[in-house]
TrEMBL record:
Protein name: Transmembrane protein 107
Lineage, top ranks: Eukaryota, Sar, Alveolata, Dinophyceae, Suessiales
Top-level taxon of origin: Eukaryota
Organism name: Symbiodinium necroappetens
Protein keywords: Membrane, Transmembrane, Transmembrane helix
InterPro entries: TMEM107 (IPR029248)
Length: 175
């Protein structure tokens, strides 16, 4: 069972790394996803702006009406905070896995964490390719970022409360 848990942990580490890379790509493409969430009239106004303004490099958003500007700024703020939290959760998980400290009965967390992160990576690929509205990211955030993070947090809380801690030995080298 220990070998299986190590394989789950390795798969989870790879899945979290892939998920982190895709999340950074979504962060860079966030104006496209915000644009997809705006109303039709706001989209027309936004498309008249220079591309640099849509990328957030423009101080003056005069091309947008007050309602569209407020909608754009509110959407951007929410989406940016979710993406920042997502990246923070993934980094914490990666660092936590690198410590190689785990409780007994960790197999389920490693398995489900790997599956959720692989599923999240697949959804993010579709999200990027289809340039979907940022509103769809809320569900991805809840399921594929928050749940695995809470599982990892639960593990560390169990360790703090005195759960049995085990360390994975270093990999065996073949000579």
């Amino acid at each position: 069972m220990e070998k299986l848990n190590q394989e789950y942990l390795a798969a989870r580490f790879a899945a979290v790394s892939l998920h982190l890379a895709l999340t950074v790509n979504v962060l860079q493409a966030r104006p496209d996803h915000i644009l997809a969430a705006l109303s039709g009239s706001c989209v027309q106004q936004a498309l008249r702006m220079p591309a640099a303004c849509r990328q957030g490099n423009c101080v003056i958003l005069d091309e947008l009406s007050a309602g569209c500007r407020d909608s754009w700024q509110a959407s951007e703020s929410i989406f940016y905070r979710e993406l920042s939290a997502s990246i923070a959760f993934l980094v914490v998980e990666l660092v936590s896995m690198l410590t190689a400290v785990h409780c007994s009965q960790q197999e389920a967390l490693n398995f489900f964490g790997a599956m959720l992160h692989l599923g999240g990576s697949l959804v993010l690929v579709l999200f990027l390719v289809m340039q979907a509205s940022y509103a769809y990211f809320h569900a991805v955030f809840a399921v594929c970022y928050v749940l695995p993070f809470l599982g990892e947090l639960n593990t560390w809380l169990a360790i703090v409360r005195g759960a049995y801690v085990k360390r994975f030995p270093p990999p065996e080298t073949s000579s």
